[in-house]
């Protein structure tokens, strides 16, 4: 059966609604629908976001953008001053909403413009972040397209629903192999490297652990079914690929390595874990010696300011402290109002706190964690760091408004 492709060009500002937290502002650029015998079987949306919003999406894993499902990044780091294009596919369960419009392309266009525009219904399933799965993140940088694909772009979910189980099984297996090969080859890892075995197991486990189950107890969700097929088939295919290098018992080798890796105790010092986090994020940093302490210094470009970021580790106390410091110096005549504003913000924050230096007008935001008696990993560092810079950047808009306008503190807090 031949799929017909229908493309709608858009230029619509929209708000996506995550399960918790701030709305995601975006600009819809293109909608694509594929039809099979006049029945819509896939719906794709491409939208633009700024760099700070992208980091928020990445940090909170919105639109199913999970770190374990990212492919190899091509073309270098993203430009923080240019928008990024995200292409996502809708949950196939929602395609039934569109079937009434299959025979009239104009009605499809009008329908999507009405639900995607800024005044759209916040209860619309098409505006919920958890109903979209990210296929790719791209950016035009100096005339070249850079970015990465996700696992879901290697395996188009819409292909799964018109296939027999054995065909789907093979399709998922081949896709998984391709995804792992291309991703790991970019990191110069061979298929017999323990790292790929660990990554494979983590991916499979995370697919089962994080994907929601269908509301109908008698029917598995598509995502869970996919994950189960991955576990049943990909494991053996990976074994076949490494058999020549490992020997006659590759599955035994994989089981042994995975068991050792997953049970291995994490004895990495806190500072080493912090360094690993910055490297994983492709975030430039430098080590600075200050009063016999090693501090990691980096920068973060937000919507409202370029922040100086300092990460300090107290190994003996098993503590990590992260600071972001604004370049905005508060004029002396505004410091009391800014202090009140920041204290009001501190009152309802659950993580971190703002500080204001009354001597020079410097604002900083601090987050920290005590890991004594537990283990630290890059995921914990990521939470501390991104919670910090995103909170700082969010409330700096209020600081700027207090300095530049006559608006009241209450009104400014209400607008943020």
Question: What is this entry, summarized?
Answer:
With 416 residues, the protein is an alpha+beta fold. The chain has 11 helices and 12 strands.
Describe the protein's architecture and organization.
The structure is a single chain. By secondary structure, the chain is of the alpha+beta class. It has 3 domains: 1-155, no CATH class; 163-264, no CATH class; 270-415, Yope Regulator, Chain: A (2-Layer Sandwich). The protein is 39% helix and 25% strand. It is built from 11 helices and 12 strands. The protein has helices spanning 51-60, 105-116, 151-154, 165-185, 194-210, 222-246, 250-263, 270-280, 335-348, 378-404, 409-415; strands spanning 3-16, 24-36, 39-49, 84-90, 132-141, 144-149, 285-290, 293-301, 306-314, 319-325, 353-356, 363-370. A 6-stranded antiparallel β-sheet has the order 1-2-3-4-5-6. Strands 7-8-9-10-12-11 form a 6-stranded antiparallel β-sheet. A hairpin with a 4-residue loop joins strand 8 (293-301) and strand 9 (306-314). Helix 5 crosses helix 7. The longest helix is centred in the last third of the chain and has 27 residues, at 378-404. The chain is globular, with a radius of gyration of 24 Å. The relative contact order is 0.08.
Residues in helices, as a percent range: 25-40%
Distance between the amino and carboxyl termini = 51 Å
Output the helix-strand order: EEEHEHEEHHHHHHEEEEHEEHH
Number of domains: 3
Class of secondary structure makeup: alpha+beta
Record field, number of beta strands: 12
The description of the largest β-sheet is: 6 strands, antiparallel
Beta-strand content: 25-35%
Strand order of the largest sheet: 1-2-3-4-5-6
How many distinct helices?
11
The rough form would be described as globular
Spans of at least 5 consecutive residues whose pLDDT stays below 50 are: 188-201, 203-251, 253-268
Taking Cα atoms only, what radius of gyration do you get, to the nearest Å?
24 Å
The overall pLDDT average reads 75
């Amino acid at each position: 059966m031949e799929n017909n492709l229908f493309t709608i060009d858009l230029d619509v500002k929209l708000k996506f609604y995550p399960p918790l937290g701030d709305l995601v502002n975006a600009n819809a650029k293109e909608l694509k629908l594929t039809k099979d015998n006049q029945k819509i079987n896939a719906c794709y949306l491409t939208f633009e976001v700024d760099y700070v919003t992208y980091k928020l999406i990445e940090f909170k894993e919105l639109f199913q953008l999970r770190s374990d499902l990212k492919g190899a990044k091509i073309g270098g780091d993203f430009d923080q001053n240019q928008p990024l294009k995200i292409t996502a596919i809708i949950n196939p369960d929602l395609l039934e909403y569109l079937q009434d419009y299959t025979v009239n392309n104009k009605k499809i266009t009008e329908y999507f413009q009405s639900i995607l525009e800024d005044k759209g219904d916040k209860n619309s399933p098409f505006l919920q972040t958890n109903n979209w799965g990210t296929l790719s993140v791209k950016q035009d940088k100096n005339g070249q397209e850079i970015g990465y694909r996700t696992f879901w772009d290697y395996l188009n979910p819409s292909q799964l629903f018109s296939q027999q189980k054995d065909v789907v099984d093979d399709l998922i297996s081949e896709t998984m192999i391709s995804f792992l090969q291309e991703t790991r080859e970019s990191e110069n890892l061979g298929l017999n490297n323990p790292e790929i075995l660990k990554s494979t197991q983590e991916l499979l486990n995370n697919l089962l652990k994080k994907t929601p189950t269908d509301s109908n107890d008698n029917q598995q969700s598509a995502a869970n079914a996919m994950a189960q097929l991955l576990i049943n088939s990909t494991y053996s295919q990976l074994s076949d690929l490494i058999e020549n290098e490992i020997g006659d018992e590759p599955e035994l080798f994989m089981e042994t390595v995975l068991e050792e890796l997953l049970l291995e105790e994490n004895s990495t010092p806190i500072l080493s874990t912090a360094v690993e986090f910055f490297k994983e994020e492709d975030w430039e940093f430098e080590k600075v010696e200050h009063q016999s302490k090693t501090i990691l210094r980096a920068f973060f470009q937000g919507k409202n300011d370029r922040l100086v970021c300092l990460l300090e580790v107290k190994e003996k106390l098993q503590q990590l402290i992260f600071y972001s410091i604004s370049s905005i110096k508060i004029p002396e005549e505004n410091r009391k109002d800014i202090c009140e504003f920041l204290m009001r913000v501190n009152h309802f924050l659950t993580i971190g706190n703002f500080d204001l230096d009354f001597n020079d007008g410097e604002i900083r935001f601090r987050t920290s964690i005590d890991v004594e008696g537990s283990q630290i990993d890059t995921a914990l560092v990521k939470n501390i760091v991104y919670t910090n810079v995103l909170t700082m950047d969010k409330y700096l808009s209020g600081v700027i408004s207090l300095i530049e306008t006559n608006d009241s503190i209450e009104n400014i807090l209400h607008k943020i």
